[in-house]
Specification:
Layout lengths: L1 E9 L12 H14 L4 E9 L2 E8 L6 H20 L24 E8 L5 E8 L7 H9 L6 H4 L7 E7 L8 E6 L3 H8 L5 E8 L5 E5 L4 H5 L9 E5 L7 H5 L7 E4 L5 E4 L1 E2 L14 E10 L2 E2 L3 E2 L4 H18 L18 H11 L18
The structure holds fructose -6-phosphate and magnesium ion (MG) (2 copies).
One magnesium ion binds next to loops.
C-alpha cells in the first residue's frame, strides 16, 4: 500500500529558556493530534529535541495535504495556549502567521514528507535537530549516500551500487523553490561543491537510482527568510528509509560519529559540533551544542512499531564526550573567526547595527578626490 510519512515540527515554548518544552505542552499537542486525527491519520508519534516538538504522522493522503498540515498547525496552536498559561518562554515562537493558509511551509514550522509504496518490512529513521539549520544534514547525507568510507554498501551491494540522485535547494532564493538534481557518483564533486556551503545549499531529498524510490527528505525552511528577522534557528527534521535498496541503518548513522561543526548554538550565531543525543534530550552548554536525535521505526500498513532510540548506545557516549571536547575547544576563541558565524548569518541585529554606526566614522586616508586631511591647529 501507498503510505505517506509527514513530520511537522515547531518550537512553541519551553521551560527555563530555549531548553525543553514542558510535559504538559507535549501532552497537549500529542492528545490534540490523537483526538483530531481520526479518519485522517493511520498513526502518529511525538517527541521533543531541545525546545522543539516534532509530530511524526502516517497517512494515505500524499505530501502537502492541507488537512494534515492543518491538524499539525492546530495542534501547535493548542500547545501555544498551554505554553502561555504556563508562562513558558517563547510561547508560540515558531507560529509566524495568524491564519492558516493550507500548508505550514512559509508559516514557521518545519516539515518534511515522503510518499512511497510500503515494503513488506519498512525500516526508517526520523531525525530531529535543535539549535542548528537544515545544512547540518548536508555532510551526513553526502557521506551516507555517496561515500563508501561510511557506506560500504556502495561497493558491496549491487542493489545500491547504481548510486543516488540528490535534489539540492538554494535556500537563499526566496521567490520560489530553486533546486538542482545531481547524480552520485558521476557528479560527486559538483554535489560536494554545493554542499560545502551549508547555509546556502541544502539537501532536500535523495532518491535511489536503481528504483527511483524516495530514500530521504529534509526540511529546508529558513526562518529568517520567512520572518525577515531572527525568530530562532530552523532546527531541521529529516526522514531516511534504510536497508535493502537503501544504505543500512548503521551506514546512515555512521557520519554522526564525526560531530561535525554546524551553524547554530548560542543566539543561532556560532559554529558548534553536532552532538547525537537521546530522544527527548534538552540543550544546555552555550544554548547547545547543536543536537540531533534519531528514532528508528518499522512501519507496517501505516502503523508504527515502538521507536528505538538510535543514539542510546554506549558507542554514542564516547561520541558525545568527544563532541563536548570539540564544543569546548571552539568556545576558547569566543567571537573570533570561525567560532562566530559570518556577518550574513548572524541571527541578531546588534552587530549589524553597530557596524552601521561605526561605518560612518571610517575615513579613507589620502583617498583620490577625498577631502584633504585636516591641518592640525598650530
Ligand atoms: C538559538 C536560541 C538561543 C537564543 C538565546 C537568546 O537558536 O534559540 O540561543 O537565541 O537564548 O534568546 P532570547 O533572545 O529569546 O533571549
Ligand atoms: Mg529549537
Ligand atoms: Mg527555539
Amino acid at each position: 500500500m501507498n503510505v505517506t510519512l509527514s513530520v511537522i515540527k515547531a518550537d512553541v515554548g519551553s521551560i527555563g529558556g530555549h531548553i525543553r518544552p514542558s510535559d504538559k505542552l507535549k501532552e497537549t499537542v500529542r492528545n490534540f493530534v490523537r483526538d483530531n486525527g481520526n479518519g485522517l491519520l493511520l498513526d502518529s508519534y511525538l517527541s521533543s529535541t531541545g525546545d522543539d516538538i516534532a509530530i511524526l504522522m502516517s497517512h494515505n493522503r500524499g505530501v502537502d495535504d492541507p488537512k494534515i498540515h492543518e491538524l499539525a498547525w492546530k495542534a501547535f496552536m493548542a500547545g501555544t495556549q498551554v505554553a502561555k498559561e504556563q508562562g513558558l518562554y517563547g510561547a508560540g515562537q515558531d507560529l509566524l502567521k495568524d491564519a492558516f493558509a493550507g500548508n505550514v511551509r512559509g508559516m514557521g514550522p518545519a516539515s518534511c514528507e515522503m510518499e512511497f509504496e510500503e515494503r513488506p518490512n519498512e525500516p526508517f529513521l526520523f531525525f530531529a535537530a535543535d539549535k542548528t539549520d537544515p545544512g547540518a544534514y548536508n555532510l551526513p547525507m553526502y557521506l551516507a549516500f555517496a561515500d563508501p568510507m561510511h557506506c560500504p554498501g556502495l561497493l558491496l551491494s549491487t542493489k545500491i551500487a547504481k548510486g543516488f540522485t540528490f535534489t539540492i535547494m538554494d535556500v537563499s532564493y526566496t521567490e520560489g523553490d530553486r533546486v538542482i538534481e545531481l547524480h552520485a557518483p558521476e557528479h560527486l564533486y559538483d554535489i560536494a561543491c554545493l554542499l560545502r556551503d551549508n547555509e546556502r545549499f541544502v539537501v532536500e531529498s535523495v532518491r535511489s537510482r536503481a528504483t527511483g524510490d524516495i530514500a530521504a527528505v529534509v526540511s529546508t525552511s529558513r526562518l529568517h527568510n520567512i520572518a525577515g528577522k531572527y525568530t530562532g534557528k530552523d532546527d531541521p527534521v529529516a526522514l531516511v528509509r534504510s536497508q535493502s535498496n537503501f544504505p543500512a541503518t548503521g551506514e546512515i548513522l555512521s557520519p554522526y560519529r564525526l560531530g561535525h561543526y554546524v551553524a547554530g548554538t548560542m543566539r543561532g550565531s556560532h559554529n558548534g559540533p553536532l552532538m547525537p543525543v537521546r530522544l527527548n534530550s534538552s540543550v544546555s552548554f552555550f544554548d547547545g551544542p547543536p543536537v540531533v536525535s534519531c528514532a528508528a521505526f518499522c512501519v507496517h500498513n501505516g502503523k508504527f512499531t515502538e521507536p528505538v532510540d538510535a543514539f542510546d548506545h554506549p558507542f554514542w557516549d564516547w561520541v558525545r564526550n568527544r563532541t563536548a571536547e570539540k564544543a569546548a575547544e571552539i568556545r576558547q576563541q569566543g567571537f573570533s573567526g570561525p567560532a562566530m558565524l559570518p556577518y550574513s548569518e548572524l541571527e541578531y541585529g546588534g552587530v549589524v547595527e553597530k557596524l552601521g554606526e561605526l561605518d560612518k566614522n571610517f575615513v579613507v586616508r589620502g583617498a583620490k578626490g577625498g577631502k584633504p586631511p585636516k591641518k592640525e591647529a598650530a
